Amino acid sequence: MELLAKINSNSHHSQEEGQFARLFEEEGIDRVDERLAVLRIFLETEEHITAHELWELVQKAGRNFEPEFVRETLRLMCRYGFAQRREFKDRESVYEHRHLGQHHDHIICIKCGKIEEFVDEKLERHQARAAYQHGFYMLQHRMEIYGLCSDCLSDHQMGISLVQAKPGESLVVMDFLGGAGARHRLMTMGLKIGDKIEVITNDGRGQVVLAKGNSRFALGQGLAEKVMVKALTSEPEDF
Ligand SMILES: [Zn+2]
Ligand SMILES: [Zn+2]
Ligand SMILES: [Zn+2]
Question: Which of 2, 116, 122, 180 has the most CB atoms within 10 Å of its CB?
């Protein structure tokens, strides 16, 4: 099965190379052979890569093209439907293959940056229906799930300092580190061991804002570092 997928994707790729050369020649685009070399290198990776990473792969393959030439070729690849640019939250743009008639969505780990792809036909139909119910005909959509991958999640389930927690995370307070002063300040704020909290914002550089029930708390970095928390997770319902 895996072998078949590989063969399919190889014939797919050689087909794309042929189309690329033909289209670019018809359009009067310069340096077609060199651009074709960039396309080949791009098609060899199945990752989501930045323009700079593609340039590095090109260098590694022994082709000494200027970064701007690689960038421009990528733009052309996007314009003519061979590549697709993706903009994920808080990240540099990445590029991936664009195989005609194939669509997929993404799950992104906000901690380590891992990107997984998925296809869910039911979800696709639901989105088209949601648009239709609002009087729209769906042309495109972007479905991105941000979360913690299983490796990152297991770290958070072991226990982390609040400064390492991510916005949206549900946590339980395990312990307060530091002296009696910090403990006392946290207690008088209304934070106790065993409390369930949710992180509202954490830019990783200072203040952490969190919610406990209907109250909001803002902790400076010094204090947030002393709060030990653990991820609270449960399987989605209807699983
Ligand atoms: Zn989709
Ligand atoms: Zn991760
Ligand atoms: Zn993708």
Answer: 116
